[in-house]
Amino acid sequence: MVSDASQSSAAKPAPAAPRKRVRDPEARRAAILTAARSVFAERGYAKATIREIAQRAGVTHGLVVLHFSSKEQLFLAAVPGTRDLADSVRGDAEGLAGRVAHAYVARMESADSADPFIALVRSAAGDQQAAKALLRAMREESIAAYRTVLTGPDVPLRVDLLGAHLIGVTFSRYVLADGPIAAMSAGELTRYLTMTLDGILFGSAGTAPASS
Questions:
Q1: Which bin fits 108, alpha (ψ -120 to 50), beta or left (φ > 0)?
Q2: Residue 2: how many other CB atoms lie within 10 Å
Q3: Which residues contact 124 (CB under 8 A, 6 or more apart)?
Q4: Has residue 198 got a pLDDT over 90?
Q5: pLDDT at position 26
Q6: Which 8-state DSSP code applies to residue 210?
């Protein structure tokens, strides 16, 4: 005969195995980027904080830093600009200036205050340290992209000159919106930029390309 204690023990269900915590790094990364776009658009680059971005994404501050090492890298990953640079640079060297000019103008014509160039110009006026950090991050991303097409020891210098030129155009046309550059049509700007960028990248600036 089985004792009552044995019966009780046999009838008692086995404890459930502890549930494993579901980890979805890609979903969390996507949530961080979505939150970052909102915060950067609302606060501007200089005033946005990783802490607020983490709160909106529903993750910890440390997780944001784990995915993106700094606010600068998070910004570049979240907004258009250097994020899309690799696509516009990709191709042969001969058409590089035209591809970059076209991509820049197309993006900037519909850009908002979170665009990297606009954010850099505006943050420079109020927070030079933030602007320098963003510029360094943009420079590193840009040099890496252009090295897939350009060769030579002076690639960093050429890329830095190109960036400085586009920052100046951004300031005149898209921040102050005043002067001949601001008055150009998008097509005219693209043609002139193709000429000047070609000169910076390859030292072959000449007369402005004819209208197509």
A1: alpha
A2: 8
A3: 131
A4: yes
A5: 87
A6: P
d(CA 123, CA 119): 6
Residue 199: its pLDDT value, please? 95
pTM (2 decimals)? 0.71
Q: Which residues lie below 8 Å from residue 120, measured CB to CB, with a gap of 6+?
A: 45, 131, 134, 135, 138, 167
Handedness of CA 95, 195, 160, 128 (dihedral sign): negative
Please count the CA atoms within 13 angstroms of the CA of 111 that sit on its side-chain side: 21
CB 130 within 8 A of CB 46: yes
Answer for the pair 145, 136: CB distance below 8 angstroms, yes or no: no
151: buried, middle or exposed (CB in 10 Å: 19+, 13-18, 0-12)? Answer: exposed
Q: Which long-range contacts (CB under 8 A, 24 or more apart) does 185-188 make?
A: 186/105, 186/106, 186/109, 187/211
Tell me which amino acid residue 78 is: A
Residue 81: φ, ψ to 5°: 125, -110
- End-to-end C-alpha distance for the chain, whole angstroms: 100
Q: What's CA 58's distance to the chain center, in Å?
A: 22
Tell me which DSSP letter residue 171 carries: I
- Residue (of 121, 125, 112) closest to 78 by Cα position: 112
